[in-house]
Amino acid sequence: MSDQRPRSVEKGASNLAEQIGTRAARKLKARKSKQGVWFGLGMMGLIGWSVVIPTLLGAALGLWLDDRHPGTHRWTLALLVVGLTLGCLNAWHWVTKEDKAIREEDSDD
After folding, report:
1. How confident is the model at residue 15, as a pLDDT?
2. What is the rounded radius of gyration, in angstroms, for the C-alpha atoms of the chain?
3. For the chain, which end, N or C, has fewer CB atoms within 10 Å of the first or last residue's CB respectively?
4. pLDDT (tens digit per residue) in 40-82
5. What percent of the chain lies above the pLDDT cut of 90?
6. What is the pLDDT of residue 76?
7. Is 87 within 8 Å of 69 (Cβ atoms)?
8. 60 and 75 in contact (C-beta within 8 Å)?
9. CA-to-CA distance for 34 and 87, rounded, in angstroms?
10. Could you tell me the residue ranges of all domains in the chain?
């Protein structure tokens, strides 16, 4: 009998080595990068506030218009939806901007 390992074992070992190398490189890159848990939480907060503030401003403006100029149409709900839409578009802008920056950083490495 020969002492040679089957090719499937060698292939599995090289695949495992590649996975370990990839993970190690990712960890080293994460350590060099300033982005960590706090960066992620800050980004979540930024996205949240970028949606909340326009929504509340739209609702406040709608309440003010309903109070000052009563009529058959209510402005509160309409401006709340407009504020929510603008806030979501703003959040989408931030997310795509950060995603683009991350992808450019990955392509540089």
Report:
1. 83
2. 26
3. N
4. 777 788 888 999 999 999 999 999 999 998 888 889 999 999 9
5. 37
6. 93
7. no
8. no
9. 27
10. 1-32, 34-108
The Cα 109–Cα 20 span in angstroms is: 18
Dihedral in degrees, nearest 10, Cα atoms 14, 17, 19, 24: -160
For residue 75, give both structure tokens: 């402005």
Residues in the chain: 109
Q: Tokens representing 70?
A: 């009563």
Residue 74 carries which DSSP code?
A: -
The whole-model pTM stands at 0.62
Task: List the structure tokens of 84.
Answer: 């929510």
d(CA 22, CA 19): 5
How far apart are alpha carbons 4 and 10 in whole angstroms? Answer: 10
Tokens at 31, concatenated: 């350590």
Three-state secondary structure string covering the chain: CCCCCCHHHHHHHHHHHHHHHHHHHHHHHHHHCCCCHHHHHHHHHHHHHHHHHHHHHHHHHHHHHHHHCCCCCCHHHHHHHHHHHHHHHHHHHHHHHHHHHHHHHHHHC
